Amino acid sequence: MKSKQLVAMAALALLVALPARATEVVSSNIVGYNKVALNNAYTMLGMQFQTVGNANGSLSIGQIVPDQFVNGIDWSDDDFPFGAKMMLWNGTGYAQQYYWTGEVPSDIQADLKDELELDDEVIYNNIWVDGDYLPVDPTLSVGTGFWILDTSADGTGKVCTSGEVKNDSVSIKLNQGYTMIANPYPVDLDLNTMTPTGLTAIDWSDDNFPFGASIRIWNGTGYSKQYYWTGTVPDDIQADLKDELELDDEVVYNNIWVDGDYLPVSDKIPVGSGFWIRDDNANSETTSISFTAP
Asked: pTM of the entire structure?
């Protein structure tokens, strides 16, 4: 994926007065923003920020601002065209929202508000809407992945996300099959800092060296794939692998990410990126993946 990423950090001092004592307590919260350049098709992104001053681990999509789209919306089209599209995976399909870029002509705004019986205070400039043209502002948890589609983008179109950086660990429950998640922090993330819990055990009596849970990271045209070997790998299989792959004896295959050739990997998940994780036998109540704050 052709991407340009920028993370800016600033300390935000929140002053809390304590009337019982003539002192002030200062707590430091880190806020920042991230800009990611878009392909001219789908770009998989992720949520790294939460609402400033409210450590609830989430942020509304109103804080996800598409910027510098190549083509404006042709408002002469009577079908009320959609702009950039966001797709949120819900476990079985996608919820879709659309971004209307720039100023919507006043006559179209009036027609929309009349047809949808909306208050006059609603302004359609630079706004997310659903498939029925209704304004939407859902909240995304830190670590949520999503797609952005802008067919007119040529690398100059960008999406900017801003908010407060979560400074503690993040745990995300996994559905059976695919779950779309994201790097929850505004730094490149090593795969081996992710800790899966409750994954299906591997049947090591299978001579084909089975793979466990897998992740798929979108690169703009396809996926790179890595696999997680859960638990303790039997000594004889470890020895055979290290002999076949000419690895040092110090390599230990217990609870490790490997590629399609069984080689250990330590790939990075870039800032702002989402990815898929798959476990066909996951239980959403007991299966999760955890991230440790950098």
From this structure: 0.79
